Amino acid sequence: MTLSSAHAAPIPTALLQLLADGREHSGTELGERLGISRAAIWKQLQALDELGIALEAVPGRGYRLREPLDLLDAAAIHAALAGQLELASLEVFSRIDSTNAFFLSDDRPTESNLRVALAEQQTAGRGRRGRAWVSPFAGNIYCSIKRQFPCGLEGLSGLSLVVGLAIAQALEALGIAGVQLKWPNDLRADGHKLGGVLIELAGDAGGPCTAVVGFGINVKMPSDSAQTIDQLWTDLRQLHSQLPSRNTIVAGILLRLAQALAQFAEEGFAPFAAAWSARDEFRGRPVQITGVNVQQSGIAVGVDERGALLLDTDSGRRAIVAGEVSLRGSA
Ligand code: BTN
């Protein structure tokens, strides 16, 4: 696991890995296994507390996490992908500002294979429209993928829809059913937001361009972090009682996404339109689209072959390429 520089206290990764099993560990055992003093262990335990990781001291016996931790592990992800998908790179950060920002400032050449960055925590996670993406430690999935596309920016319309669809399909293949989509980039379940996609682009408008495809999925959102989320949200643990590990979920998503991105690079959005529309939470419902200066109302009827939202209005069918969708009558 890579430890990025940040202003907060460093994350004691090795200690966390020992405690992740949720069993009791004495201070002496932890000190011996890490080769540091008991005082140093105590300091690191305090750093865990600051991260919001609930820790219990068992008098006379040691320490244990209140709940076992399911940590991200690059080796486990590589193992799950073996023979199926070769990545140009896979980096797992304990803490980073934003996995999207990491790739936007990364000047290594973009390979034909995918580069992938994951983080346990983001200190400046980015959402769409300049919003923050709440990114507490070790609860969720924060992932960015860097890939080159042969077309210019114009050809990438529909990309965020393809990403959302591939994630929903991957989750279903892992036994997590019921994930729906909200145009253009939300993953939803039971009418609540489960995750989102943020695509940021580098490159010429005309020639080949590099896309940073970021996605966040709520897996086990801690309740104190949830208080800062300004909309109805859900997480995978509310959808499925026996979740696979986050490493298994990430590997399943990467496999599906790699296939979908390759097909999108060749064929564009058209082959995905029907499957996207079938998962559209608002299909057939009265919606309002809020654009920069305009509002339009109508019935959402799915998406077209470019990924534009189709809206049946009083004056006919319109294809919407930008805007925020809300159900008519809701806030
Ligand atoms: C949205 O607003 O719905 C999009 C959220 C995208 C969040 C992900 S988390 C990984 C990647 N890094 C970021 O800073 N943002 C994206």
Q: What gap, in angstroms, lies between the N and C termini?
A: 42 Å
**Percentage of residues in strands:** 25-35%
Q: Tell me the CATH architecture of the largest domain.
A: 2-Layer Sandwich
The helix count comes to 10
Looking at the structure, what is the overall shape?
A: globular
In CATH, what is the homologous superfamily of the largest domain? Answer: Bira Bifunctional Protein, Domain 2
Describe this structure in words.
The chain has 331 residues and is α+β, with helices and mostly antiparallel strands. The chain has 3 domains: 13-65, Arc Repressor Mutant, subunit A (Orthogonal Bundle), CATH 1.10.10.10; 74-276, 2-Layer Sandwich (BirA Bifunctional Protein, domain 2), CATH 3.30.930; 282-327, Roll (SH3 type barrels). The chain has 10 helices and 14 strands. It has helices at 13-19, 27-34, 38-50, 74-81, 99-104, 159-173, 223-226, 236-239, 246-267, 273-278; strands at residues 55-58, 62-65, 89-96, 115-122, 141-149, 180-182, 186-189, 192-203, 209-217, 286-290, 295-303, 309-313, 316-320, 324-327. The strands form 3 sheets. Strands 3-4-5-9-8-7-6 form a 7-stranded mixed β-sheet. Strands 13-12-11-10-14 form a 5-stranded antiparallel β-sheet. Strands 1-2 form a two-stranded antiparallel ribbon. Helix 2 (27-34) packs across helix 3. The chain is globular. The two termini are 42 Å apart. The model is unreliable at 2-6 (pLDDT under 50). The protein binds biotin. Residues 98-100, 122, 125-128, 131, 133, 142-144, 185-186, 196-198, 214-216 line the site of biotin. The site of biotin has 21 residues, from helix 5, strand 5, strand 8 and strand 9.
